[in-house]
Structures are given as structure tokens and as C-alpha cells.
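# step 3/5: fold
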Amino acid sequence: MMGDRLLGVLVQTADTGRLELKYDDAYLSDESATPLSISMPKAPLTYRDRALRPFLLGLLPDNDQILQRWGARFGVSWHNPFALLAEVGEDVAGAVRFIRPERLKDVSEDSVAWLDDKTMERLLRQVRLDPGGWVESEDDRGRFSLAGAQSKIALLREDGRWGLPNGQLGTTHILKVADGRFADQETVEFVTMRAARLVGLPVASVELTRFGEEVALVVERYDRLRDEFGRVERIHQEDLCQALGVLPDVKYEREGGPGVEAVVRLLRQNLGNHADAAVERFIDALIFNWLVAGTDAHAKNYALLLYGPLAELAPLYDLTSNLPYQEPVSEHERDSRLAADRSGMKMAMSIGGENTFRGVGRPEWQRLCARISVDLDRVMGRIDEMSSQLPDAVAAAAAEATVVAASASITKLVDRAATHVAATRRAIGLEAHPPAERTSRTPREDTAADTAARGDPVKEVT
């Protein structure tokens, strides 16, 4: 289903186990109907494994333990995306829904299991300690699949209440919790996302919320909108690995995944009049991730929104800095190289053929701009502008986070971001610290306007 419309029938052949999809004739004839993927345009043909598998796998968690748990619970192979999505595919990224024929009647009847604050606290604790544990429930409500490796859950929020939806109802928010791999992971992501918004990047709206003893990053789904009657409408999206037909296990460029040139080519070939603006936004995101040492900015962490035959670059999401988790550098090292130097941190996408943060300077940006036909002066200007604002933006976002969850990781992020940004400026021939008048209107001042316009991004539930 695409929303509440039949898109087609996905089957797995009994003899070979191959996947097949044909668009429904009525859907195919509707010029306004949205394709499943840019990699699978509407056409009167049968799409098979090579096209389908990257898209389907891209809807599932990037966590083998969760997939194994699901496979055991549902009695299917955890390597089989068709079988897994038959169980958890009724609410996934975008507007597509995978519904077994015998479930069609059930999903036409909407219901919500509302959760009180204590239940929310208990649920988030379960997600943190056992991310795939919800599958043990016999209740079909709340069955969803979210891509990525972090512990998370999708819920409906309505009139200040949280609930597990069923039927046509979709989830509206994703709640992320730290899972033990990285301390204060949800708080670091909140600060990084808020800092990105403060320097002017289009990002998904986030809040940092406490439910009793549990802290969660609450992300408003940009692929869900409410219509004029208040009903949740699904907007179709796909990440750039899906759009390029690339399997999610090779999402990093150094492992064979898409790099900057492949992404820019995709945007220019498919976004029509929106292409130039989308390329500029993508380069801005590339700059931001270089400035904050965002090591996870691979092609799955960029997405397209699809509206019928049209597409546009989605708001940024999953932005996070790796600086709190690296060993600090000494004073003499600060004068000569990036704060990320000692760890040898690598970028998910290379810049001008260089994939280490410490190895990128003006020549690498110049090489990249030449390869993708982007104006170097514009890029250098954006680096100057963004780096001038970013240390204050990180500090302002950290101050917001501290209201709910003070942590050593946030203190490290603030300190190391300032050092790292100063080093990136030196790497392209700028003063380490811009003149005072360049930052006279600080992101901290912008925060008040931000809060007034969108509501307080920091909330606590007691």
C-alpha cells in the first residue's frame, strides 16, 4: 500500500525465494501516484531481487541482534526482508505499508493504546535495554520498523498523549534512547541537531524529554503531516541508498557505498527545478558534518521526499558529533592539526578524495568543487559563515540540553567543538577565531526566537 492506496503486490516465489513486484494497473495509470522508489519508477514491468532487496533491507534496523530476535519470534529467517516486513511493515519510513492479505480488514479499523507516563518510562527502559523486545507481545498494535542501529521506538503523539497506533493510523514521532555503546548518545544528537538548526540548516524538529528516570530524544517525523482534519498523513520518502539501489551494508563510501559525486549526480538527474537548491543544501550538510566531526553522514542518513513524480531533499536527521568520544589533544597538537587527528576519525563520504578529517583543507574542497561543478567561492564562504557561528550554536544547544540531562559528554562536546572548528578554519586558510563583529548576533540570541516560533524544545514529564 502507498498510504491507503494499493500500489501493487509483492511476492516471494516458492521455488526460488526470489522477490517480485508489479505495480497495480490502476496505480500505474495514475500520473499523480508516487513510485515506490526512484530506483523503481512506475512502469509496466516486474521488479525483482536486484531492485527490491536494497529498498526492503533499507527499511529494517541495522542491527543483526534485533533482526535475529524478530526472526525467532515470527518463525522466519532473519535474512529474509520479505518475511520480516510481513510482520513489522505496517508502519515504516515513508508512506509505503506492507500488509498481509489477512490483515487488510484489521488495519481498516483504527485504534490507539494510550500510554501513561509510568508506562512510557517502562517502555523506554525496555527499548534501551532490549531494543527488539516489543515483539514478544501478542498485540499487533505498535508493530513498526525503523532503519538504523540506535535503540528507538515509533509512537503516535496527540493532544499531549503518547500511544501505540493500529489500523490506518501512523506514528508521528521517533523516540531514541542511549543504548550503552556511546554515553549520552541521545543528548549528543540533540545538541548536534539543535546546533545545525541554529546555524540555519533545515533539520527535523527534536526535543529532549525526560520520562521519570529515562531520557529520550524525541524526533518529529517529517514524513508524517496532519491534514486539515487533524488526521495523520504519510509522506513518502526513501534514503539515498534506496534511491541509488545500494544495499545498506555498504552505506559507507570506503566500503563501496555512495560518495559525494554519486549523490550530486542523483540529485541533478531526479530533482528537476529543485536540483540546484538541493545540491547546495547537501554541500551545506557536508560542511556541517566536517565541522562537527560527524562520522556517520553516509547515504542512508540523507533522504528524498517523493510527491507523485516530484522529489526534494528531505530535512537533515541523525546528525551527531563523534567529538565527545575521542581522546583530547594536547596544546601543541591543537596548533597544528584537527582535534580529531589522534583518533584518525574518518568521514563517511570523502572530500576531494580524502576521507580523514585531518587531511581535508582548501585543496581538497577545491578538488571536490571541480569534480561536481560547484562554485568554490560559495563553498568557502559557507564554511567561513557556518564555522563562525558553530561554537556558539553548540554552546547554546548544550545549555538547552542541560536543563533535562547534564552530562560530561556535553561538556566535552562544547570544548572540543570549539577546538575542532578553529582547526578546520586554519586548514582552509582562515583565522582560527573570526572577528567579533562576525558573530555579534549569536545563536544563543536566536534560540529565544526559535523557541517562540516552535515551542520549547526541552520538556520534562514527571
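# step 4/5: annotate
Residues 367 and 460 are 47 Å apart (CA to CA).
# step 5/5: archive (pending)
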